[in-house]
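[recover] target loaded
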């Protein structure tokens, strides 16, 4: 079964999740986590592009550092990809993934007997 879930999360929920993990809910963390909640799985490059890329107010290094800090406290997990890029995942539970070649997206897959 493929999990297709809308990942719209309120600002208050984002702030609460960040604070519950022991991090301060800075504007940078709030924006990065909001993008991750919407995308589900993403590389630092993809998050950076979603935030406006070079036109945005955040550098790629800042995006990467925010993703790493969230990973360290368990808010995100790193997922290896089929390419050389590291992806981050908001779903921290044990589950599988499918790669959609047509859209180049990673999609959650859950089938208890296979896990």
């Amino acid at each position: 079964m493929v999990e297709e879930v809308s990942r719209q999360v309120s600002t208050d929920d984002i702030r609460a999740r960040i604070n519950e993990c022991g991090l301060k809910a800075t504007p940078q963390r709030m924006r990065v986590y909001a993008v991750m909640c919407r995308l589900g799985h993403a590389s630092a490059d993809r998050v950076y592009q979603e935030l406006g890329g070079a036109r945005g107010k955040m550098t790629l290094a800042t995006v990467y550092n925010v993703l790493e800090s969230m990973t360290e406290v368990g808010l995100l997990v790193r997922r290896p990809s089929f390419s050389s890029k590291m992806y981050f995942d908001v779903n921290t539970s044990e589950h599988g993934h499918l790669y959609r070649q047509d859209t180049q997206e990673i999609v959650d897959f859950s089938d208890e007997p296979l896990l």
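[recover] notes: The beta strands are 41-43, 77-80, 86-89, 96-100, 105-109.
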